[in-house]
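Why does residue order matter? Because the sequence determines the fold. Keep that principle in mind as you read this record.
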Amino acid sequence: MQKTTAAILIDIGKPLVVTEIGVPDLMPGQVLVDVRYSGVCHTQVLEVRGHRGEDKYLPHLLGHEGSGVVRDVGAGVTRVQKGDHVILSWIRGPGATVGGTQYDWDGRAVNAGPITTFSRKTVVSESCVTKVSADFSADLAALVGCAVPTGVGVVLNTLKVQPGESLAVFGVGGVGLCAIGAAAVAGCNPIIAIDLVPEKLALARSLGATHTIDAGAGDVIEGVKATCPVGLDHAVEASGVPAVMRQALLALRPRGGKAAIIGNAPHGETIEIDPSQLNLGKQILGTWGGDSEPARDYPRYCGMMDSGQLDLRPLLSRVYALEDINDALDDLEAGRVARPMIDMGL
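Structure:
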């Protein structure tokens, strides 16, 4: 049995354990990938801290955004072949989706879903891989597994913004910063970044935000209205805080303002809204990964980055070794880094 090093969630609320595990044989429809980079998302913070409700699959692997090289393919796989460079993504594209698989940890089963990326080798479903040019930067390719399709997609696909329309992003972590970059590419004006962390607001300006609001320094709604007196054409909520979701709705203009909710709230939390806001003609939109379709959109997003039209490299301010995965989670949770990137070669 092949071996790999992986970070395992054994108990919620406890650090991940980095150890060697056995890699299972491929089932039909599965792909074995040598992972090069894995992004770390707030979803994993919620999972590790126990904020997503009961976890029935412990112990298990984590991670849903990465890049790598195909090492082998199972029966029936046609979309990729050995040697292909690929994006690993939780957003499913064409191809087979295989149920969970199990790795071996000294005789103990370690569960995994159709995709995991916190390991140097990973078994994923065919639908979770998208071929990418070998010349495209592997760390940026990892971003296309989640942050880019969600943040860029919500602006271009879900909200379908038009040049000159106003847009604010509530929460400028990795996904929110991608939304800022997409709004700039689309010609939105003004583009307002809202967050509690000054360093993130500075980063948002470098990606195209025309205005910033420190959410801890005053009334956010008043701050938005100082720039957009009639309210926003579009709002993107990427904080995962129900009170902020409500703010996004309040900040919209009547008769057509749209708020897209991206952020994942902790399990059990709810949002309370005043129905009169909807009577004003404001809209709340949900989105599944920015309504991105990997086969259609991932080449487009890579092209935008490759051409320099969309420069997201500032998000990658710190790279971690797999053995430092718990530091990456802590730094993400504390807002010290926009998008931690795990380099499997370290």
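The chain has a mean pLDDT of 96.
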